[in-house]
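I hope you will forgive my troubling you with a question about protein structure. The full record is reproduced below for your convenience:

——
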Amino acid sequence: MDLSSKWIKVSEPFPHILHVELARDPVNAVGFEFWKAYGTTFDSISEKKPHVRAVILSSAFSDIFSAGFDLYNAGQIMKGRTDADPASDAARIAMNFQKQIEQIQEAIMAPERCTFPVIAAVHGTNIGLGVDIIASCDIRYAASNARFTLKQVDIGMAADMGTLAYLPKVMGNMSFVREMAYTADWFSADRAEQMGLVSKVVDGGKEEVVASALELAKRIATKSPIAVTGTKRLLSHGSDHSVAESLQYTTWWNAIMLQTKDFLKRPGSSFLPARPGDFKFGTPKL
């Protein structure tokens, strides 16, 4: 089943690993159709591709990851909302905007809902909503040519698609987070690594960072998919709950999941199937 669409390219560079590329020419500006396709792509992979063990996310364009929100499209959405009923009061207009914002948030957070890890391979320029996109991924690698900015304050708004919620959790320096969010200043890949936004900077551009992300995905793919999925769910739960709550959740999760046959395999052995078709999620042939 081909998951590619108008502005999203999906390929399988290695068994059990997919490569999702953002491909809205010329700069991956995120508009209405784009974010719907983005969320649908990840949800469809989860639902229709049970063999997938890791996904790499990059841009199809070497010089830019994303230019952020499509401002023309945003203006059309806002105009449509306010023109729909000129007599409507501000509260009702706000309720309509709330629905729109929540739909976009749901799409941008799609990688977090996936059972498999999503690795962002960032290269070139990444602006505003593009940072929201990578913030919801499990792991972030950056090419040395990558640069970032939280641009929302420059267009008169607070970032509302995940950046301000995720960055305090994934970055270790709140002073830096606030400085970048308040000023829309640019920061480099090296600075992003130093502050914890990315875990690795790869010398070069798109080709090099995608290759590095693929090597990481290959290592993940050799592990038990039950163990990786469980680890992802427990880490996500732990980021939003107390230690006691997370331990209780872990107890119930492992009470069920430790019954997998994967738990009996020799440590260090690969969980990749010997032949295509040998693998179905949760029941690998041993």
